[in-house]
Fold Adenylyl-sulfate kinase.
Amino acid sequence: MSKSTNVTWHETSLTKEHRRKQNGHESTVLWFTGLSGSGKSTIANAVAKELYNRNIRSYVLDGDNIRHGLNKDLGFSEEDRTENIRRIGEVSKLFVDSGQFVLTAFISPFRADRQIVRDLLEEGEFIEVYIKCPIEECEVRDPKGLYDKARKGIIKDFTGIDSPYEEPEQPEIILESDQYSIEECVEQVIGYLTAKKAI
Ligand SMILES: Nc1ncnc2c1ncn2[C@@H]1O[C@H](COP(=O)(O)OS(=O)(=O)O)[C@@H](OP(=O)(O)O)[C@H]1O
Ligand SMILES: Nc1ncnc2c1ncn2[C@@H]1O[C@H](COP(=O)(O)OP(=O)(O)O)[C@@H](O)[C@H]1O
C-alpha cells in the first residue's frame, strides 16, 4: 500500500491553463535521452538559451543539479536508475503544471522508465528527444574521461559498456549529434515546437 493513502489531493483555483495563459506559451517536457557524451546537456542548455532569448520560460534539469541534491542517495544500479527517472518525472510534471518548459538531460536508459514518465503527463506534454550518437563518437569525445575509466574497469555498470541503453522506438525528435552541429540541433527542436504551436 502507498504510504500516502491518507493524504488528500489539494485542488488549486489557479490551474496550469491560467499559468500558461499568463506566460503566453504552452508548457511541456523536452526529455533528452542518449548515451553519456552524446550531447544531452549541451543541446538542452543551448535550447534553453534560445527559449530565454524568445522570452519563453524554461528550466534545465540534469545530473549536476539533481544527482548532487534531490537524488544524491542514488547510484547506477538498474533499481536506482529507475528511481532516479521516476523522481525526475514527478518533478518535470510540476514544472509543466507551473506553465514552463522543462528540459531534462538524463541518460534514462530504460524504455519502460521513460514510458512511465510519458504516462504521467497529458497527451503532447512529453516530447522525447533522442540524441543519437554512435558510442565510438561518444568515446572519442569522452568529456569527463568516464569511458576511459569504464574500459579500464575502474567504473562498473557504465551505460553502453557494461550496462544497457535501450534506444527509443518512436521518439518525437531524433538529433544526430555526430552529423549536425549544436546550432542545427537547436534549430530542429525549435522548429518542432513552432510547428506544434507550443511556442
Ligand atoms: N555507471 C555509470 N553509467 C552512466 N553514467 C555514469 C555512471 N557513473 C557515473 N556516471 C555519470 O552520471 C551521469 C548519468 O547520470 P543520469 O542520472 O543521467 O543516469 S541515469 O539516467 O540514471 O541512467 C553521466 O553523465 P552524462 O555524461 O551527462 O550522461 C556520467 O557523467
Ligand atoms: N552536435 C553536437 N551536439 C552536442 N554536443 C556536441 C556536438 N558536437 C560536439 N559536441 C560535444 O560533445 C560533448 C557532449 O557532452 P555533454 O553535453 O556533456 O553530453 P551528455 O550530457 O549527453 O553526457 C560536449 O563536449 C560538446 O561540446
